[in-house]
Amino acid sequence: MFMMGFAVVSIISLTTNIWLGRYRQRYKKMTFMWLLMIHASIPLIIPLRIWLDTPKMFIPFFIGFAILGQLIGSKALTEKKKTANL
């Protein structure tokens, strides 16, 4: 059961942060909105992890998926801008 919970939280962490990473690129670095886009998924992921009863030892993986999602999302918007300028 906990492996299904791990998969669900990981997928939601990744996909949510892809979306947030795309919007983070619209704001100047270290502004309030930029920081909000980085941390906005936390109120979703923590209760989901607790509700699905995933062990605490998987928290670093969820953080890693969140960072990966932010990177993928920001690169997607950057690549879109590059192709639009050509």
Q: How are the elements arranged and paired?
A:
Layout: H1 2-24, H2 32-39, H3 42-51, H4 59-85
Write structural notes for this entry.
It is a single chain. With 86 residues, the chain is mostly helical. It has a domain at 25-80. Helices cover 79% and strands 0% of the residues. It has four helices and no strands. It has helices at residues 2-24, 32-39, 42-51, 59-85. Helix 1 packs antiparallel against helix 2 and helix 1 runs parallel beside helix 4. The longest helix is centred in the C-terminal third of the chain and has 27 residues, at 59-85. It is elongated and about 50 Å long.
Q: Indicate the radius of gyration in whole angstroms.
A: 14 Å
- Oligomer, anyone? single chain
SSE class: mainly alpha
Which residue ranges are poorly predicted, with pLDDT under 50 across at least 5 consecutive positions? none
Distance between the termini: 49 Å
Enumerate how many helices there are, as a single number. Answer: 4
Mean pLDDT: 89
**Helix content, binned percent:** over 70%
State the order of secondary-structure elements, H for helix, E for strand. Answer: HHHH
**Global geometry:** elongated
* Strand coverage percent: under 5%
- Major sheet size, sense and barrel closure: none
**What's the count of strands?**
0
List keywords for this structure.
single chain, 86 residues, mainly alpha, 79% helix
Concise structural overview:
With 86 residues, this protein is an all-alpha fold. Helix content is 79%, strand content 0%. The termini are far apart.
